[in-house]
Hints:
Helices cover 20% and strands 24% of the residues. It is of the alpha+beta class. The chain has a single domain (4-58), classed as Alpha-Beta Plaits (2-Layer Sandwich), CATH 3.30.70. The strands form 2 sheets. The protein has a two-stranded antiparallel sheet. A hairpin with a 2-residue loop joins strand 2 (25-28) and strand 3 (31-34). The radius of gyration is 10 Å and the shape is globular.
Amino acid sequence: MPKPKVSDDLCIGCGTCESLCPKVFKLENGKSKVVAEDCGDCDCQEVIDSCPVSAISME
């Protein structure tokens, strides 16, 4: 099963991912981090599509 991943090199810490899927993404030290591997309650594809720098993927 694919899991969400954030590229630290690309992330600008805008917070869109956390606002769309707060159970999976949290901002820590100005960058988004994956805090849960399951996008059960949210649509991770929407999060991927909404990231302004394409820092989020499913792997």
